[in-house]
Amino acid sequence: MKCYEIRGLLHDYLAEELDDECSRMVKEHISGCVSCRKELEVARKYCEALAGVEKVSAPVNFFSGVRKQIEEPGLSGRIKSSLLYPLRVKVPLEAAGLAVLVLVAVFVFRPFDTLKAPSPVAVTDGSVSPDGFSGKHSGLPLKKQADVMRINAINPGEKPARKKSPNESPSFGASKIASSAIEKDYEKKELSAAAGSPSGGINNDISDSKHELYVIAFNAFIVSPEIKKERLEYRSREKTANRKSSEESDDNYSVSSDRKSNGYPSMAPAPKKQASAGSDAITMVRDAVISAGGKIISENTGGNDGKVSFIIVELPGKNISFLKERLMKSGNVIIKKGPEGEEIERTLRVKIEINE
Amino acid sequence: MIGDDKILIEGFLSGDERSFNMIVIKYQDMIFNLCHSITGDYDEARDCAQETFIKVYRNLGGFKQKSSLSTWLYRIAVNTCRNRISLLANRISRKAVRLDGLSSSMTASVDIEDGRHNPATMYEEKERRTLLIREIKKLPLKQRILVVLRDIEGKSYDEIGTITGMKPGTVKSKLSRARETLKLALRETLK
Question: What is the mean predicted confidence (pLDDT) over B9-17?
């Protein structure tokens, strides 16, 4: 055995706790190793010094002190026992569970946040059913302020509203102007609400542009169907009020009953004939979106007839112009609103309305 | 004569307070001495030892008698000292620093702390004890406990493992380091 191994056994050797074999090896090594013999001597003195330490007896009043503390607990012990043992106010388990559930519900639904800042939702058409909207968008990432470009595509079989001749019937022109007024008024509300948000600056820039572009701040933060329903009702009331004000301002004109029933005032003509969800307009829009590097997030049906009323797509911001060009090439598309700037780095969410 | 531990435990659990009193009387010196060796302070040792017996009084019903009563007492005392030292570490160190800072020629703080309990004319043995306790007190807490249990109390490695919750290999390695440190500090005394 090496010296360091022997030195690790010296204390046990002195305590006679080694087995015979180890003890013999240590003894043989020590007899021939001077340094280990010195180390053994130091270890012996160390053991003697510590083992010979005089024992200290407990104080005289030690026992009485223990009994006193057992029979009379200290001040802190008395306070604890008086407060907690026995617990005078017992909280029922049901009440505690209910409190926890309420806290969780408040945390999840956050009603106060909604009341504090009723951000605009990308629902501009009151005819969109609340369930359908929430169902389609609940899976979207919570992107607080995403821009939505709304593009109206009309059936290729119909003429675009912009290409209408100026000498068309006054009633239709009046309704268009009224609808436009409603839309602009509503648009202002949307933009002013969005301006309060951190990303509202983008919308302000767009609102000042000369183009007839329509951007709605989109907030996907929908936490419950009830809250969303309230929002929609609010919007519906707001739109009704706007519509009435527009009607009052344009006494000579009247909005057609078709437009009223349509729910959302649009420059595109109201649907006159039914079209399937896979119609030319939808197919064209889908192709354009895919060719622009985008993806279709959801296709929403606007009513009970199962038609696709609008499509939410997501695509890189820099491809917006390409998408607009593709849609414009078809000659059947009116781009009413859209974000300015060709080099938008971030991903945009675009809402394309299909009015067939 | 104080009876067997098992009889005393059963007597206490059956409601006989005198059994507990006998346990205290039987082990008070042992526990107090252990606490004094670990804490190095007379008052702290008294508090720790008394707290140990109060814990015994409240938890003796849960003692499963897998080890001897003395080992169980050792374990409670060691944990009590460990907790108390951890809690009062700052206070004790501040006290020592303040006393040391009064004068550079003043003797070590331990002498002052224990001075009121020691006579002015110390015997050589008491001086040696003071020196040993002071050096042991400088050790890290885990090493200190091991040195006290092994080299002063003479416990076996298995008992130390039961008391401290360490494995025997860990006990040996830590004890070896502690001994080297102590030998270095006491080299003048051990000559």
Answer: 88
**Residue B145: band (very low, low, confident or very high) from pLDDT cuts 50, 70, 90:** very high
The pTM of this model reads 0.45
- Residue B154 is predicted with a pLDDT of 87
* Per-residue model confidence as pLDDT tens digits over A265-282: 333 333 333 334 456 777
Question: To probe the interface with A, which of B12, B21, B22, B24 has the most A CB atoms within 10 Å?
Answer: B24
A6, A41, A44, A56: which to substitute to probe chain B, counting the most B Cβ within 10 Å?
Answer: A56
Chain B neighbors of A59, CB-CB under 8 A: 32, 46
**Inter-chain touch A62–B28, beta carbons under 8 Å:** yes
Check if the interface score ipTM surpasses 0.90: no
What residues in A contact B28, CB-CB < 8 Å? 58, 62-63, 66
- Report the b/e string of A230-240 with b at 16+ CB within 10 A: ebbeebeeebe
In chain B, whose CA is at the least distance from the CA of A55? B33
Instruction: Estimate to the nearest angstrom the gap between the alpha carbon of B104 and the chain centroid.
Output: 30
Letter string b/e over residues B7-35, b meaning 16 or more CB atoms within 10 A of that residue's CB: ebbebbeeeeeebbbbbbebbbebbbbbb
The 8 Å CB, 24+ separation contacts for A192-197 are: A193/A118, A193/A119, A193/A120, A193/A217, A194/A119, A194/A120, A194/A145, A196/A117, A197/A117, A197/A119, A197/A144, A197/A145
pLDDT in tens, A230-252: 444 444 445 555 555 555 544 44
Q: How far is A37 from chain B (nearest CA, A)?
A: 14
